[in-house]
């Protein structure tokens, strides 16, 4: 809505080139600035390790002794030993890996694997991403159905609204990472294994935003719109299908986007207590065991890219649906 | 074939080579077993998994298993392939630490999640408080890696001889920069990586028979791994689904592990057990276990398996 | 299996649901006391069912303790729970929440001033918001140390983007006529900001602030899984799971649920006070 | 005088459709109670065209809403065809035009107009038939496939009138339906409405702010005064049923308009 | 005839305030361009009261918006006091009443009315003074502390008029300000507005759908026709400046009203 208003007030040039210019250029500039700042930050972040390495190799650094340097300011050290700035950008286990290191690792574990025909080998992020994706999507589906169902109940029943809503909020204050192992164990003990336990954790995280958004959406019709149907003596189900559901669509898609992102987090969390053998969560953790910061960062970015793609797909669906419904102008 | 599920204590690595070798070389199959090996991880308590019915047999450290037993979960040790403990404390030498008493006033990273018992017992036997201050040590719950040491957030961290210690070395630290305290050398070693099952199951002859075959095959696997460390490491690598393990690290780990399993035929040595219990009971004001455990181990399986 | 327990459990849940139905649809249905009574009563029903399931099915305490056992542990360990609460909630979550919120407002104002920045930063921000905390937490623990500072940093990262995105959206949520009115007065940027756009943005801002409350607590707890001093709710949970002291784990979860709900409720209350004028806050008319 | 008028009407053996007796309605709001209607007595007979006129906030809308069972009286009774308004609604007795257009934005104009028909279970063909008839009536042929936001405010208002006329409700309740229209369109729709009313014999309740409009359309004009809303005058029209537009220049018309204006003015506080 | 009229006006040596020359405005929308204004030529002199009348969607609002620099022409020019509208706005030349009330819901009525005064840096006391004066003018004394959503639509509209009158803008642009009001209040406010205009000599642009209102208030009436919006007639009022309400019954008044109606009708397609 506000988008439309902005678009029309800015004069309404709509040519493709202009749109690309407006959308892509700012992002490119911002990303470039971030990468620049990132490189700069690498120097103080990694300088202590660089100096220690150099000292082990026999160089004389100022001041000598890792213990002495421990409590010194990193920026000060970087300035005093600017000769070692380069060494901060290519360490094996940096505190902050340089952008090109992350990019290289990402490429080596995705595109590079594809070129070698090993796209689905266990060292490939495509393989691990795929594992996480399947749990994410299944959990998202369960969570969305549950969230929508709960929202329908809440909107149509006073008791549900009063009794369940506070508990739905409370349920989200429980740290999922704490109860994930218990969920897995309990489900295991009743014979549920495989994809489903992970998906249920995803669902636990994604049902809430969907439910909250849908409650808002299903309640979004104003009094007049509801009164109109009253004068027709429309039934509850007619009111639902002809008024509440259509007017909740914008909310539905927005909350699905949040739900999808939450679902991905859930799938990753769910991977830890299942042995963390496959999936992006397992990669994150494995990177963490062995202090492979570059690997952590690569897995992190892979997860974020996956989330962006999933959310983008929902955004696409949203545009198509709302356009068909005449709700985007 | 009879199905057996084994829950490991940690992720797939050479620490568990014997089981992977037994599976890979068909030793289990020969015994008519169909074994599923479930990797562990930071969020997995083997005792909880077996209580929930998620495994038939689990690998655990004895302090944790005995503590669970006191909590009312009747775990029984049926075999003990690890003779000695691989746990140690690794410190920076330049912090001035030379002997255990020097730990006072220092910051120390410790694994929790049931793995803190040996450390706590050791400190209480030294009479060092873990509440911080000049006369005590400041304890940190260390994460899964050796960063706290490398970043000098801690003066010492817990390491295993076969794993974390080498990660420190791989990070470019020379052994001369470090000083280590092995629990074995300190006389506070506790038993690690034993096989545990639920007590009530042992009464079931079918289960007993299954375990006999399992232990037999597993020990065969262990011995094979000790003799062919490089091959064993490669088998472990093949079974690592995360794709994060490296060949060098696993081969070296296998070498270290072989030192720990050497001297055990799989049967629990009662003397080791007694020493472990003594250490845990002697934990000063807050001992890990409070009463002498009864029936926490048995030779019922190994007697049949190893003869 | 103990059928008496199970039967009793389901029967009392049914009875409670029935009473709730009567109360919720009866007279006085809009009174504050009803609003409190119904959910509490429902919660009690759930607890009874939980207790009945655990007792009736003989679920071992190392898998899922009964509410009565959790309550016993809770009352017996209040001092530990308090120490943990202060460490995680007050030092970690609250301070991170405040810092994150302030930073988000500041950046939102900056982003809002320049259309270019908004177009550039928001997509990147959305991307960064999708970075899973499980990956971020170990990194931040490595950077900021084991104490509460690293937990606060995780919380800052977690709450920053929801508040930022909502605030930016809110600042744009004025109607054309409202903006045109300001234009006819030739109002300056700051006048328009403080007299129109900030007030109009408050409902959105609170939306973000509310989402952020639950995120803050979860963030602080989860971060402790990746390294901490030997106190804190996350530390206790992860340690006691390994010790099979599940009653303690649930006592901490209880604290988390109470603290999180109270925090959420507090922000919601402030929201009611501040955005009383918004249609969603008006009852009746 | 109002009670007198009514008594007289009730005496005549006509067919009462809406009967309000001692109607009271008080809204409970955060800052206290608002009495919107007080002691309203009114009978609307079958085939009547009753206009409601009165200052803003006097309860015109509230009265229509009570009649349509959208609001429930806190005192007194209102019956519709001898039933409660709720029962009458069950029988789909009402066509209601709201003060604002209130079209559903996700439905095209045609689908908006078909909405009541769908709910009332008309067949597809008969829906299309009704649609075409009313689109013509309000002069919106060719706009069926547009979405509401693609039309100007006046066109939207006409579409909402079409929606209320699409099905054959016996009672038509219209809340300032022509407020957003310019005079020419308004005149046109006034004529159309009168023609429809004559042809179908519907009972119509009509809220307006325009005195000429009220006089031109109605058989009876109800003048209300605010806070709390009361009926201060009920004026019978002496105009013939057949009403060309230029009837508005006749002395009879102006006489009635004058009476309405006086009634209205009495409810205001201006001393000029 | 319109161009002729205008030519004549421009000839007279008056003080032009708003001068539109060959004004064109085309909106670019997703489904194509909408030409809202085409070749509009108009001069509004100081102290004029100019009404705009025309069917819905003909560009009345758009013209006012261009005059207030809320919209920028795509062709031709419009100047205000010899400046661009943007410059005039910087000098706070405008009081604008929008078609809908547009009060800020988080401010009380009093604070809403004070809003322009705060922005223009009036002192606290003088704010209070102005507030009380205009509250009285629109008959809302005692409602200052209510919030907008606690008032009926008509009262909100009056508050928004008060807001525009609170500061002394030379040019008052009013877009159907009295649309939501009943006839009596409307008459009253019409009188008040005329009195204010006479007293202050403001220049007023006024959009309305009511022919009598336009005739009663204006010195000049601009009749527009839709798609694209053009001026089809400009009618000079021959009524005296002093206008009691009953001037509306004089033949002169009815004659002008008739001319406006004819001009309006010419822009419509009805053949009745
Ligand atoms: N839902 C409500 N809650 C509280 N007060 C209400 C409600 N609806 C109407 N009122 C009040 O009741 C009175 C009558 O309102 P109503 O809408 O019937 O007036 P009206 O005659 O239709 O006015 P208008 O000409 O402005 O439409 C007003 O004072 C109004 O403020
Ligand atoms: N922002 C906009 N974008 C696109 N088209 C617009 C916009 N604003 C107005 N229009 C179109 O310009 C034309 C003139 O609109 P305007 O609002 O000036 O009409 P109006 O004479 O004020 O009508 P009304 O009496 O209904 O208020 C209409 O066809 C309208 O649809
Ligand atoms: C959370 C957690 N932290 C530490 C350990 C301890 N541990 C037991 S075996 C093993 C392998 C050594 O390479 C390690 C680290 C654990 N189990 N869980
Ligand atoms: Mg009304
Ligand atoms: Mg307009």
From TrEMBL, chain A:
GO cellular component, one term: plasma membrane
Entry's localization field: Cell membrane
Entries under InterPro entries matching the protein: MetI-like, MetI-like_sf
PROSITE patterns, per database record: ABC_TM1
Membrane topology: Multi-pass membrane protein
Biological processes per GO annotation: transmembrane transport
Transmembrane segments: 20-41, 130-155, 167-187, 251-274, 294-317
Signal peptide: none
Keyword field: Cell membrane, Membrane, Transmembrane, Transmembrane helix, Transport
Limits of the ABC transmembrane type-1 domain: 125-318
PANTHER family: ABC TRANSPORTER PERMEASE PROTEIN HI_0355-RELATED, ALKANE SULFONATE ABC TRANSPORTER-RELATED, MEMBRANE SUBUNIT
Family designation: Belongs to the binding-protein-dependent transport system permease family.
Protein name: NitT/TauT family transport system permease protein
Biological source species: Aliiruegeria lutimaris
UniProtKB/TrEMBL annotation, chain C:
Principal localisation: membrane
SUPFAM superfamilies reported in the protein's UniProt record: MetI-like
Bilayer-crossing regions: 6-24, 36-58, 94-112, 124-146, 152-173, 204-228, 248-270
Compartments reported by the entry: Cell membrane
Keywords: Cell membrane, Membrane, Transmembrane, Transmembrane helix, Transport
UniProt keyword Mitochondrion present: no
One BP annotation, GO: transmembrane transport
Domain ABC transmembrane type-1 span(s) in chain numbering: 86-271
A cellular-component GO term for this protein: plasma membrane
Protein's membrane topology: Multi-pass membrane protein
Any one Pfam family match given in the protein's UniProt record, by short name: BPD_transp_1
Protein family: Belongs to the binding-protein-dependent transport system permease family.
This protein's name: NitT/TauT family transport system permease protein
Organism this protein belongs to: Aliiruegeria lutimaris
TrEMBL record, chains D, E:
Keywords of this entry: ATP-binding, Nucleotide-binding, Transport
CDD domains in alphabetical order: ABC_NrtD_SsuB_transporters
Signal peptide per UniProt: none
Similarity section: Belongs to the ABC transporter superfamily.
Originating organism: Aliiruegeria lutimaris
Domain ABC transporter, residue spans: 20-251
UniProt name for this protein: NitT/TauT family transport system ATP-binding protein
InterPro entries recorded: AAA+_ATPase (IPR003593), ABC_transporter-like_ATP-bd (IPR003439), ABC_transporter-like_CS (IPR017871), ABC_transporter_ATP-bind (IPR050166), P-loop_NTPase (IPR027417)
SMART domains found in the cross-reference section: AAA
Pfam family membership, one: ABC_tran
Molecular function (Gene Ontology), one example: ATP binding
